[in-house]
Design brief:
Bound molecules: asparagine, zinc ion
Strand order of the largest sheet: 1-3-2
Strand content: 5-15%
Number of helices: 8
Largest sheet: 3 strands, mixed
Shape: elongated
Distance between the termini: 63 Å
Length: 340
């Protein structure tokens, strides 16, 4: 049970009046956030609760005075929501709730450290599944978008807290990876991974989704074709729960998502290649070219009468097909051994 707050009650069991000023409405919204986030993880990924152990979490609302934040705590396995800007915009919006509870999922799985690049990936994971939960629930009053906190008017001018298509629109977040990215606050170093997720979901350039206009740039100037948010979320979830660890950085996240994409969609499948394209579009790694790739070979020098041996390494991105090697016009005494 909850040791630091009274259990919310309602005199007529008609909870609130659908306004932000009603504490019963605020509590109902928090409960809706818990239930919807639960359903998302359960129905989409087969995950039973934040820890995957079937146990629910507590929420406390109407916290503090003018407290403009919400937070998850592993220590109490509980959520806290402030009443927001001017005490009039409770932080109980669905994407905020899903963001915060996803911190619990991350803690229970990859355990991404909350500083440096891994901290940015931790924050991005929360924004990514916050968006995925919104698209999953598809509420007429709050349809899915790639904005974070668009319902809580935290800036007082109607703008959202963060933008996934072009994170720098918030004035602080990075659009792409750079060597100094890890020095930023984790809510800003999340930018490139949020951008990756947007690109992987929807692709680059101008696009309108559920009435919201986006325009997503790419670091390498090449276009990206999206694979849809459900596929992108599946890849991120498998990467988070199977391949990422507490110290995973952006380069490691690329590897983790490629492994996840290989598991789910096949290595070198179009979906797998879209993952590499999306990372390259935020300056992490190269795009992967299909075909046969031959490792570079330097000039060879040997003396008369000395034995020589030269190994060539090649791989093909066509799964299921193997390479054959042959040589014609070899000098006397040289042969090819197409093995290894
Ligand atoms: N609402 C914030 C967040 O989840 C609280 C924090 O800074 N940890 O990121
Ligand atoms: Zn967070």
């Amino acid at each position: 049970s909850c040791t630091y707050a009274a259990i919310m009650t309602d005199a007529d069991n008609n909870w609130g009046n659908n306004t932000e000023s009603s504490v019963q409405s605020e509590a109902s919204d928090a409960h809706f956030g818990v239930a919807t986030t639960w359903d998302f993880y359960k129905n989409v990924f087969g995950r039973s609760g934040i820890k995957g152990d079937g146990k629910g979490s507590l929420s406390r609302t109407h916290y503090g005075s003018g407290y403009v934040n919400a937070f998850w705590q592993d220590s109490c396995f509980c959520m806290t929501y402030g009443d927001g800007s001017g005490n009039t915009h409770p932080l109980t919006a669905l994407d905020v709730a899903a963001h915060e509870m996803t911190h619990g999922v991350t803690a229970a799985t990859a355990g991404l450290n909350y500083s440096g690049e891994s901290g940015g990936l931790n924050e991005a994971t929360s924004d990514i599944f916050a968006a995925a939960v919104e698209f999953y629930e598809n509420l007429p009053a709050d349809p899915g978008d790639y904005l974070v906190g668009e319902k809580i008017d935290i800036n007082g001018d109607g703008t959202p807290l963060r933008y996934m298509d072009k994170p720098s629109k918030d004035g602080d977040s990075a659009d792409s990876w750079s060597p100094s990215l890890g020095n930023l606050d984790v809510h800003y170093s999340s930018g490139p991974a949020n951008h990756f997720f947007y690109l992987l979901s929807e692709g680059s350039g101008a696009k309108t989704v559920n009435g919201v206009s986006y325009n997503s740039p790419t670091y390498d100037g090449q276009s990206v074709t999206g694979i849809g948010i459900q596929n992108a979320a599946a890849i991120w979830y498998r990467a988070l729960t199977t391949y990422m660890t507490s110290t995973t950085d952006y380069a490691g996240a690329r590897t983790a998502t490629l492994s996840a994409a290989a598991d789910l969609f096949g290595a070198y499948s179009p979906t797998y290649l879209a993952v590499a394209d999306s990372w390259a579009a935020i300056n992490v790694g190269n795009r992967i070219a299909l075909g046969v790739n031959l490792a570079p070979v330097a000039d060879q020098i040997s003396g008369i009468g000395q034995a020589v041996s030269l190994q060539l390494d090649a791989y093909t991105t066509n799964t299921g097909s193997s390479l054959t090697y042959e040589a014609t016009g070899l000098p006397d005494g040289l042969s090819i051994s197409p093995s290894g």
